[in-house]
Amino acid sequence: MSLLTLDGIGVTLRGRRVLSDVSLTVGPQELVGLLGANGSGKTTLLRAALGLVPHEGLSSLAALPPSARARAAAWMPQGRAVAWPVAVEEVVALGRMPHGDGRTETGRAAVDHALTRLGLDPFRRRAATRLSGGETARVLLARALAQDAPLLLADEPMAGLDPAHQIAVMRLLRDLAREGRGIVVSMHDLALAARYCTRLIVLSGGGVTADGPPEEILTPDLLRDAFGLEAQIVDTPHGPLLDAHGVAP
Amino acid sequence: MRVMPPGRSGPCRGAIWRVVAAAIAAVVATEALAEGPAGPPARVVSMNLCTDQLAMLLAAPGQLVSVSSLAQDPRGSAMATEAAAYPSNRGLAEEIYLLDPDLVIAGSFSTQATVDMLRRLGVPVAVLDPAYSMADIGDRIEEMGRVLGRAEAAAQLRAEFEAGLAALREEIATRPRAALYYANGYTSGDRTLAGEILLAAGFANIAAEAGLPEGGVMPLEILAMAEPDALVTGRPYPRASRAEEILDHPVLHQMRERRAAGAVSDSEWVCGTPHVLQAVGRMRALRERLE
Amino acid sequence: MRALALGLCGLVAALFAVSLTVGPAEIGPGESLRALVMGDAGPLTLVMREIRLPRALLAALVGGGLGLAGAAMQGYLRNPLADPGLIGVSASAALGAVLAIQTGVAAAVWIGLPAMALIGAALGVGLVLMLAGQHGGSLTLILAGIAVSALAGALTALVLNLSPNPFAASEIVFWTMGSLADRSMSHLWLALPLVVAGAAVLLRLGPALDALTLGEDAAASLGVRVERLRLSLVAGTALIVGGTTAVAGAIGFVGLVIPHILRPLVGARPARLLWASALGGAALILAADIAVRVVVPERDLKLGVLTALVGAPVFLHLIWRSRRLEA
């Protein structure tokens, strides 16, 4: 069963060709790391998959009506701005909007669960505008979690987090995948990607240049071609580590 | 470009030059206002709605060369038909100067800058006050006769007017109460010309009860509570304005339906001329119908 | 939340009653309310039913509408400076109304006046959204608002100055500052359908505006149709501002001050702020309209003067705060 099917996705933004002919599927229990240099089209691909940018090709999500799509996939965009000083628990409760049960028992339980899972219980009643960057990111992730959709798309959820919280987020995503969700997360940290993701997709030059398990993907050749790095992945007793020793000429 | 009356002007450029030259000369020879030539003025321009009408009533044939454009508008002028026979002016110093008048008659509400400019250019200007009362009207007629050199005609008109007014006045035991109501909720009190028209016709003016002897803004509520027997409203201009919307308020309609006789204050009420007698006459007829 | 709703309703009801008993004809409150309810052929009933009742009802309607429209615009633009009066929507509506009156459309069809005001408001709000939009930020929004206000104000003055009616030119003050003096029930019937329709549109936007707190993308992923939301917002705002401006002129700052005061009391939720601001706006205009009659009874003091005196300091405070945040 696939949670997301993209077939021949192409996007042109302001006359610039950003993506061409991207096809992939994501199934349950997959934690997909979407990798690529800045400007390689990671955000655009995720937004096209959700139908938030005009695109060619087919996306199983974009084809759904908005309300059904909101129950099929949760989306955590890169923008972290919270416009009004709303309480943290109310922000998280927005995730129940597609289910229309924000005030019922089930809805509240889902919100409580998401808050606890991200360690936000002490912040429940705090205004979401008075949090640190890392705390805000966790609140927004909790909001996406409360949406309780089979598929979660997250755009650089680790940006701005300290290393401990980055690891905590990746562990959470891994656990969510193990529980049966499909997850696509765009990210820059290759070592975290190598350690936690079940599958990596590398974007460069407007298309998918690699797609497979981390150990098969992150070869020195690919690291040089797609990321401009002289590096290799080293296996350690605690998992893989990125040993970068230079920038490719 | 304004078209000059035939035979009255040289080329326009020359005419404008004359204005400029005269202005310079006037600045140099400060206040060197020449004494007018002996005898009545031969070319008179009036630039105020009320002086226009008095001048038309008193001037010798050919003596009055222009009246203001307002005098030709029947909404404000009781003599619009007569005024149509005269070239009109819009009260601008330049156009009046080019008419080459030897007397300009202005009202005391005419633009001061225009009057000053004309005087600097050496044009004699007579400024007449408006008539604030019936008694003023006779004086204004006489004053107009004096500046036009038509004292005899003025004395005759004054006598006719005063006789006509005396004939209309009568002693009233109980005066019905009337209200004057204009745009923006404005009312005129007893000490105004409109107020005196009411008094002369045998009405009492409710503005006095409301503590507005000079007139002023009377809230609609006060008007409704006063329950006048007659309601005299201003005539709305075409192209409605919010200021006049109050004249169409349901309260006024209901007052008229219930008891108040309606009348309209029009051009005969505006200026202190013998035409106010017609206004008095019509209001008197209205009062007689109320009895 | 229930306490706030009850408190605001009580405040509106109390101010409504006071508004009915205040006026130049000094009549006791008991006597005047009795004349209003019982009714007789006397002038007091006429005054109560035809002068004071429409005035109080219009104050509540106009204030409620402007408060609601302000809260909705702020929610959509995610900007506390958005107010229909400040960003030129009211000025555009006033231009439409003046054009309707001066071209004779208002006299020809009864719906002419509010319809033209509505079109003006829709063009104004559409233009501002086009110029400033969701991503424009405070500065762009205010600049766009200044431009639209200035253009609409200049055109209004032009139309009134060209009018053959000698009273028209003096009416610029009414259209820019607003007043409820000497309105009648016919004005209420003119504005009511538009304001009610606009309120019905805007009050339904609550959940979408809540979702928009997290940005357009997040809202869209929660099932909000952002395009439809924008259209609803333009339509609802235009209906309300068009309807209220057609009968009461442009009254500024209501949609700025009221959401600002009430936001902390509703936990900053845009959805709750909608109905709260409607009640708060009604209370503000009722109070302001009582004040203009009590403070200077002999002058027709314009409502917008009072709301600006209250609103401008709030506006300055908000600019000061947003400057600090953006720095």
Task: Give a description of the structure.
The complex is a heterotrimer of chains A (249), B (291) and C (327). Chain A has one domain: P-loop containing nucleotide triphosphate hydrolases (Rossmann fold), CATH 3.40.50.300. Chain A has 9 helices and 11 strands. Chain A has a 6-stranded mixed sheet with strand order 5-6-7-3-8-9, sandwiched between helices. A 3-stranded antiparallel sheet of chain A has the order 2-1-4, with helices on one face. In chain A, strands 10-11 form a two-stranded antiparallel ribbon. In chain A, a hairpin with a 2-residue loop joins strand 10 and strand 11. In chain A, helix 4 runs antiparallel to helix 5. Chain B has 291 residues and is an alpha/beta fold. Chain B has a 5-stranded parallel sheet, with helices on both faces. In chain B, strands 8-6-10-11 form a 4-stranded parallel sheet, sandwiched between helices. In chain B, strand 1, helix 2 and strand 2 form a beta-alpha-beta unit. Chain B has 2 domains: 123 residues, Nitrogenase molybdenum iron protein domain (Rossmann fold); 114 residues, Rossmann fold (3-Layer(aba) Sandwich), CATH 3.40.50.1980. Chain B is globular. The N terminus of chain B is likely disordered. With 327 residues, chain C is mainly alpha-helical. Helix content of chain C is 76%, strand content 0%. Chain C contains 15 helices and no strands. In chain C, helix 6 runs antiparallel to helix 7, helix 10 crosses helix 14 and helix 13 packs across helix 14. The longest helix of chain C has 35 residues. The mean pLDDT of chain C is 91. The chains are: A alpha/beta (249), B alpha/beta (291), C mainly alpha (327). Chains in contact: A-C, B-C. Chains B and C meet through helix 10, helix 11 and helix 12 of B and helix 3 of C.
